[in-house]
Amino acid sequence: MKKIGNIAILLGILLLLLIFIKPLILEINYQIKNFSGVSYLVSDPNMDTEQTNNDRLFFNEKAKYIEPVDLNFGIVIPKINANAKIFAEVSPFDSRGYLPVLKEGVAHAKGTGFPGGGRNIYLFAHSTDSFLNFRQYNAVFYLLGKLENGDEIDIFYKNNLFRYEVIEKKVVFPEAIHYLDSDEEEILTLQTCYPPGTTLKRLIVRAKKKEINN
Which of 115, 140, 196, 206 is 20 to 30 Å from 146 at the Cα level? Predict the structure, then answer.
């Protein structure tokens, strides 16, 4: 009987590891990055190799360049080492449409703006109701809560880089859908479920467009 009990405990521990391994790895990698002082820089497709090397030396020898996974429509967030493809025109009200997308990357809310268009760009990712199915989804926005005002978010669109700076972060109820229609200027709005592993509330991060000096 004792042996069966020990096996049950061991299986329980293994199950917990399987459930939490992905978020745990993300958190550990983030802490290691901060402790080691590594700077993540974003590779601009329009920047020449010499300039890229100069940037690396300007920061420190530990600087690592993030190559965007999709230059046609992709997102890179250096602080949390997030790098994903963005799928355009996805309805945030149709789970049959957006759930398959969230397994592969980030969804662009249908009807909202695109980089350079002067409108609100609404992106959402990592929608899950439980850590039990966390491993099914791309966790690109899992560490979104680490962002603070002034942090950089880079969007690649049609082989061009658009840079944004965080200006606001807040937790809201799921009913707060007015952020979809905010078009007073070109604002990048990122949304994910909060706390991670639940659908209780939504974490909203907003960023304003910055000029890029080549």
Answer: 115
